[in-house]
Each structure stands twice: as C-alpha cells, then as structure tokens.
Amino acid sequence: MIEYANTDTEKALLVGLARDARQRNDVEASLDELAQLTYSANARVVGRRVQTKERPNPAFYIGSGLVGELKEQLPLLGGNCVIFDDALTPAQQRNLESELGVKVIDRPVLILDIFATRARTAAARLQVELAQLEYTLPRLTGAWVHFSRQYGGIGAKGPGETQLEIDRRQVRTKIAHLKQRLEKLGRQRTTQRKRRQNLYKVALVGYTNAGKSTLFNQLTKAKVRTEDMLFTTLDSTTRVMSAGYPCHVVFSDTVGFIKKLPHELVESFKSTLEEVSTADLLLQIVDSSDPNYRERMEHTRQVLSEIGADDIPYLLVFNKIDVVADFHPPESNSNGAFLVSALHARGISAVQAEILAGSQRFLSRFHKHF
Fold first, then answer.
1. pLDDT reported for residue 151
2. What's the confidence (pLDDT) of residue 96?
3. Contact indicator for 116, 5 with CB cutoff of 8 Å
4. How are beta strands 237-241 and 249-253 bridged, if at all?
5. What per-residue confidence (pLDDT) applies to 155?
6. Within-domain flag for 63
7. Which of 182, 213, 232 is the last residue of a domain?
8. Residues 141 and 111 reside in one and the same domain
9. Are 300 and 283 in contact (CB under 8 A)?
10. Domain count, the chain
C-alpha cells in the first residue's frame, strides 16, 4: 500500500516539464491545478519550477542541473516535499529522493492520496484501495531492487526475490478479492438501475470543483457536502424527485473529472460512472470563472466518450456567473447554454424548466413504448 506522511507540515515545491517553449504556458496552467490539488491534500505550496526540455531525463525526469538547484532551494524555502506534475518511474522517484533528501511524489500519487482521505461510502473506499494496489503492484520490483542495492551482499538476492514474490502474490490476491466485492456491488447497482427504467434520469457531470454538488443541492433540496476544493465529491449521490415533474426524476451527483487522472482510478471508478452512461439527460457543469474553461469542457467530453456517454443529450450549464462580470459562452454553444449561480440560486429555474420538458417527452415515449 502507498504510505502517506503527516500532511499537516507538508510544504511542497511543484515541478513541471515542458517539451518546448510553446508548451510552457500549458504546463504553467497545469501547475496551477496541481497547486489546487496540493491544497486539497492539506499541504502548502512554497515554490514552483518549470523546465523546458525536449525529453525527460531517464534518471531524474528533469535535468541534473535543475536537481542541483532544487537541492539548494528547498532548505531556503522550508520545503520538505517535491511534487511532479507528471508520473515518475520508480527509479526516477528513488534517484530524486536520494539526491534531494526529501519526499518526492507525482500527480497520480497525490490524487490517490486525496481520494483515499475523501472516500466516504464502502464502495468508494473499495475503489480507492483497488486503485492504490494496482498502482503499487508494478512498483514492488523497483522497491526490492532498491533494497538489494542498499544492503547488497549475502542475503540480498535469494530471500529478497522470495519476499518479492510473496508480496506480489499477496497484492494480487487482495486485488482479486476487492474486484469480487466491487462486482457484487456492481450487480446490486444494476438491479437498482433496472428498477429505475421508468424514471427520468439526470446526471450532473463536469470538471472537478465546477459546482456540481452546489447545483445538485439546489435542484433536489439535498445537503450534499460542498467546498471550494478539488474532489469534494467522490461518492455518487442519488435523489429521486417528484414534486413539480410529471414523473419521478432521478438526479445523480458524480465524481468530477480532471486531467491526468491515474488510469487505475478511472478503471476502479467505472462502476460509479455507470450512473452517467445510463442517464437520459446530462447537465454538463462548467466553471465560467476558470480561465481554462474551454479546455475543461473538451476534457469532460473526452471522458464522456471513454465511458460511452457522449451520445446522451446534454445541457451546458455555465456556473459561477456571480464571479465573472459579463460572461459570454462560446458562440457554438450560446443557444443551448444556461448561465447560473448555483451558490446564489440564480438562473436555476430555466434549467429546471428544461428538465421538466425533457421529463414530459420521456413520459410520452415511455407510454407509447409500453
């Protein structure tokens, strides 16, 4: 399992790598997001560096010159952790920790850490544990190579290899056990969804921290936890509404999307995202105050395509208009866009009217079919 240090005293220096000068702005924007993730993990950012380098250094990911600079800067900044915006190989992580003398992690580990601390339901905790184990399994070999190099000599070869196989077997057994439990939960969800076939299903989707849960609370009068922080919601929350609609409407609040989400998390959370792929209508929530909102919209559409939900009808809901003066949605989406402030309940009635119209059409089709 991945071990987590006490984040109360974490002071992190962020590092990104740009392949050329043109990509530098993109990397800077990605580090802005990494800073938000760091804050979400209860750590503090004390500095950041971006290096322009055509290809990663096999040993350190960044150039050895920058490694030396970071080694000098960390004590001056009071840093005790370095977080890389891209995934590191086990060897790169070990080499960097050896040179810098502080903990080194990458974006996937940071996201896994956040998910581990935020998971509330049994299903979410199982999904996160599975992702952690699948992330750890290929890194076990590197850990034992590091052990044999450190201690060497007699006793570091045969027993080490035996212990490695034992660890691998234990992790694989645990993974198989978790998958079985998740499959059982998945079958229960499938049964629940079959019972909702005659219900109009609306799923809220979008980039993390776009305000999905706040809008969900407005639409359903629920009290789902909200906070100005990435990945506040990990567990899919469902509410059934009937007042004001011609049929029962099922609203689902879902986990937010983000760039460079660890593959292991995407795989383990697929069962949760099935709430999205079986919806009749998607509300794609966009943070209009985010300067990179167009990129966030594109990324959301990509994830929806990956889970087979890109053909489902959707409404674009631009949230947080109370923060941005005179916001104008992209021209291609201006006719089908809704401008709202979920926090202050502005513009919600227009979204509700569209959901009402959709539920009426659904009810008409359902009666014709049966």
1. 36
2. 94
3. no
4. antiparallel
5. 35
6. yes
7. 182
8. no
9. no
10. 3
205 domain residue, yes or no: yes
Does the pTM exceed 0.90? no
What 8-state DSSP symbol labels residue 207?
Answer: B
For the record, the structure tokens of 314 come out as: 């959707």
- Residue spans of beta strands (DSSP E) within 231-360: 237-241, 249-253, 281-287, 314-319, 337-339
Give the span between the Cα atoms of 179 and 191, in whole angstroms: 18
Q: From edge to edge, which strands make up the β-sheet containing 103-106?
A: 44-52, 11-18, 81-84, 103-106
Pairing of strands 281-287, 249-253: unpaired
Domain of 249 in residue numbering reads as: 196-369
Q: Which residues of the chain have pLDDT under 70?
A: 1-9, 120, 140-164, 192-197, 223-236, 262-272, 331-335, 366-370
pLDDT score for 156: 36
77 found inside a domain: yes
Predicted confidence at residue 2, as pLDDT, reads 40
